[in-house]
Amino acid sequence: MEQYKQEFIEFMMDSQVLKFGEFTLKSGRKSPFFMNAGAYVTGAQLRKLGEYYARAIHDNYGDDFDVLFGPAYKGIPLSVAAAIAYSEIYDREVRYCSNRKEVKDHGDVGILLGSSLKDGDRVVIIEDVTTSGKSIEETYPILKTQANVEIKGLMVSLNRMEKGLGGLVSALEEIKQKYGFDANAIVTMGEVIEHLYNKPYKGQVYIDDKLKAEIDKYYEIYGA
Question: Is the CB of residue 130 less than 8 Å from the CB of residue 174?
């Protein structure tokens, strides 16, 4: 596992973004783990988060894109932070773009924040996590109605490694099959387990045998 991935897992734990317990997800699934990117709240956290996204995006898509699109609301700071980091790390300017939940009819009109989209733009979508792939069903039409853009792919921070809406393959794989673009993550839940299972981090074992059994049981139902 790459060093930055190990650091990112520990960064999620330090930021209390990845938690273990019992959670009911937006999809209705009851999960023993939960990831909430809304817990990144400080300038230092957002700077580091942007750097992790930038490195993962560069690893998977190189410089072959023009715009980072972050769906409202959580995707807005993610796209901004990643665009800043990409400029600093790779000395390349990319634009950020997000959508509004409601169309604005005065001043900066329209449904988009940040950069406008134009025909031929190559777009990477940034999200915090994709459990079932439902969010892309909302995001894809927004992008396609704004301009004839090429969606290069999706980047999330954590691949939960769960079945998508179709119930056969993972949500990220389902996105690839349905929309024809790539879908990747900074880390997978499998890598999180590998890094934390029965290994103390700052004096605490986050994934012990009991929790590992609960995660395994969850994946027997929802795993892909």
Answer: no
How many other β-carbons are positioned within 10 Å of the β-carbon of residue 107? 5
**What share of the chain has pLDDT > 70, as a percent?**
95
Quick one: tokens of 24? Answer: 């009911």
Q: How far apart are the first and last CA of the chain?
A: 20
Per DSSP, 184 falls in state: E
Q: How far is CA 178 from the centre of its chain?
A: 18
- For residue 94 the two structure tokens come to 């990319």
Task: Using the structure block, give the residue that is written with the tokens 């980047």.
Answer: 155
Which residue numbers are catalytic? 104, 106
Rounded to a whole number, what is the largest CA-CA distance in the chain? 57
Distances (CA, A) of 47 to 53, 138, 192: 10, 28, 22
Q: Do strands 67-70 and 95-104 pair parallel, antiparallel, or not at all (unpaired)?
A: parallel
CA angle 159, 86, 90 (to 5 degrees): 120
Return left, alpha or beta for 163; rule: phi > 0 is left, psi -120 to 50 is alpha, else beta: beta
**pLDDT tier, 106 (very low <50, low <70, confident <90, very high otherwise):** low
Enter the pTM of the model. 0.90
Burial of 78 (0-12, 13-18, 19+ CB in 10 A): buried
Which pair of tokens denotes residue 9?
A: 């897992």
* 12-63 tens-digit pLDDT: 999 999 999 999 987 788 999 999 888 999 999 999 999 999 999 999 999 9
Q: Token digits for 109?
A: 């009109």
